[in-house]
Every structure is written in C-alpha cells, then in structure tokens.
C-alpha cells in the first residue's frame, strides 16, 4: 500500500514537490471556505473527479454547488490539521486530516456540527505543475449540539440510527435541508470502503 512507503528520506526535489502539493490542497480548501471560486478552479485538472456527500462530478459542477451552499444559511468551514503526502514521480497521494464545521438553523434551534474526516487526494504533475485529479472523503465521526447552553435541539435517535455512523449528523442535516446525501461513501464504520480507496490509490501511484 502507498502508506507503507518509507518517510523522512526525501531528496531536495521530493521536498519541494511535497511542499507544493501541501500548499495546493490546503489552498483549495481555503478557496472553498472563502468563496475564491476562480482560484479554486485553478487547483484542479480539467478531467478531475470530485466526490463529496452531496455530489459526484467535475470541478465546475463542484464549484457551482459550493457557491450555492456558501450563499445559503449553512456555509461550511474546513479546519485542516495535518497534510500527509506520498510521491512516485509525477503522481502523488495526499490526505488532509480535517474537521468540517457548520453552524446552521435546524429544527427551531441553531446548531454547531463538526465532522471529522480525511480528505483523500490523487494528484498529478503536468507541464511541471501539480493539480488535483481526484478528491474524496473518508469519514470518521461527527457530532451536533445547540450553539446555546439551553438550546432546545434534541436528535431523534431512531432517525439518527438510520444514517451511517461515520457521518450520521451530516446526513441528518442534509436530509432536513431537502438534500439527498450519498450514504455509500468511505467511512471508518466500513473498513472495506477505506481499503478500496487505498487499493485504488496504490494502483494510481504505481507502487
């Protein structure tokens, strides 16, 4: 698997590539959060595929959907804690350890939702420039509470149990907002789904 590659033995060229990739994927999230749509588009190859809970599609489709969501009452912010990069020539895998945070109206209250995820990227250097070729999440867990100490929000446990444990609150919120979340994404509650991503990325990386 790609994650079995030895770390800490980079050449100067590899260090430069890893720094550029780390900057790229973290800047892509920055652009997403702060509505820099033209700059965000420049982070992707034209043939990239973007997979998130609410869509699978092209960079242009993802940016258009992101713009609509940022104009809504529930814009997301992404807090990136660590970014790990694996290289093989002009191809790379990166994972960003991320918390997706949303404050939004829900069921007569205002709630704070936090979803822990690993954003998994496949990247390729073309004409000397790294760009994203694929992005998809690996969900871990999430939570939701009222923003007020005495807020009335209380989850329906039966409804919550009908969603995936690794991103149940994200799915609940989207359903309550009239969306149709994808319930088949990779998550730690389904280890085989994470293994499938890692196997595909190992093949992509060519190791």
Describe this structure as you would to a colleague:
- The protein has 207 residues and is an alpha/beta fold.
- 33% of the residues lie in helices and 38% in strands.
- The protein contains 6 helices and 7 strands, in the order ααββαββββααβα.
- A hairpin with a 2-residue loop joins strand 1 and strand 2 (55-57).
- The longest helix is centred in the N-terminal third of the chain and has 22 residues, at 12-33.
- The N and C termini lie close together (8 Å).
- The mean pLDDT is 94.
Low-confidence stretches: none
SS strand fraction: 35-45%
Largest sheet: 7 strands, mixed
Would you tell me the structural class of the helices and strands?
Answer: alpha/beta
Outline:
globular
Number of helices: 6
Give the rounded overall mean pLDDT.
94
Q: Tally of extended strands?
A: 7
Distance between the termini: 8 Å
Rg:
18 Å
Order of helices and strands: HHEEHEEEEHHEH
Keywords:
single chain, globular, alpha/beta, 7 strands
Q: Topology, pairings included?
A:
Elements: H1 12-33, H2 37-41, E1 44-52, E2 55-57, H3 59-70, E3 76-88, E4 91-106, E5 109-126, E6 129-146, H4 157-161, H5 168-176, E7 186-187, H6 191-205
Parallel strand pairs: 1-6, 6-7
Antiparallel strand pairs: 1-2, 3-4, 4-5, 5-6
Brief overview, please?
The chain is of the alpha/beta class and 207 residues long. It is built from six helices and seven strands, in the order H-H-E-E-H-E-E-E-E-H-H-E-H.
């Amino acid at each position: 698997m790609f994650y079995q590659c030895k770390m800490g033995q980079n050449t100067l060229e590899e260090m430069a590539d890893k720094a550029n990739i780390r900057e790229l994927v973290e800047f892509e999230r920055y652009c997403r959060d702060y509505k820099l749509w033209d700059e965000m588009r420049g982070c992707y190859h034209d043939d990239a595929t973007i997979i998130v809970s609410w869509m699978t599609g092209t960079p242009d489709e993802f940016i258009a959907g992101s713009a609509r969501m940022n104009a809504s009452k529930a814009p997301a912010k992404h807090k990136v804690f660590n970014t790990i990069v694996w290289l093989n020539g002009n191809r790379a895998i990166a994972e960003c350890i991320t918390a997706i945070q949303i404050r939004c109206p829900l069921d007569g209250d205002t709630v704070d939702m936090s979803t822990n995820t690993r954003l998994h990227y496949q990247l390729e250097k073309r004409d000397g420039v790294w760009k994203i070729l694929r992005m998809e999440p690996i969900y871990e867990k999430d939570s939701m509470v009222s923003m007020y100490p005495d807020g009335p929000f209380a989850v329906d446990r039966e409804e919550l149990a009908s969603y995936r444990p690794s991103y149940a609150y994200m799915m609940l919120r989207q359903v309550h907002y009239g969306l149709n979340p994808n319930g088949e994404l990779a998550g730690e509650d389904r280890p085989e789904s994470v293994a499938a991503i890692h196997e595909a990325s190992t093949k992509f990386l060519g190791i």
